[in-house]
Amino acid sequence: MQPVIVLYDSECGVCNQLVSWLIRRDRHRRLTFARLQGATARELRDRQPAIPSQANTLVLVRGAEPDEQVLLRTRAVLGVLALLPWPWRALGPLGVLPSALLDPPYRLFAAVRKRLAPAQSGQCLRGPDEEGRFLP
């Protein structure tokens, strides 16, 4: 299976809640997670300049070098949902819509997300069965 890494803002309560939600639904353990502020994101950013240095977007990195694919914002969300079981995977095909339609609502939400749910100790809740799902 190809590597799939979700980069998220670990200082955002909404983002941490999203990661916890994804873990509960990712029965096949397809997803791994890394903080946008961490070493894994820095290494990926060196290879993939499309990955933003600011922690204001969700990023999905699929595949391995040299065929790595980077999805940002709404396309990243839809790409992640496409990897989950039904009914979430049904939303994946919406990723074919143009970014001009998909990203404005995402950007608006991203602008207010930290006010909606303050970060709780800067980390999402991790259980014992999440061993190996979080990269540095």
Describe this structure in words.
The protein is α/β, with parallel strands linked by helices and 136 residues long. It has one domain. It has four helices and five strands. Strands 4-3-1-2-5 form a five-stranded mixed beta sheet, with helices on both faces. The model has no long low-confidence stretch (mean pLDDT 88).
The helix-strand sequence is EHEHEEHHE
Biggest beta sheet attributes: 5 strands, mixed
Separation of the first and last Cα atoms:
21 Å
Task: Based on Cα principal axes, name the global outline.
Answer: globular
Topology, number of strands: 5
- Uncertain regions: pLDDT < 50 for 5+ in a row? none
Structural class category:
alpha/beta
The number of helical segments is 4
Q: What is the radius of gyration? A: 14 Å
Helix fraction, binned, reads 25-40%
Proportion of residues in extended strands? 5-15%
How many domains, as an integer? 1
Q: Overall mean pLDDT score?
A: 88
| Strand line-up across the major sheet | 4-3-1-2-5
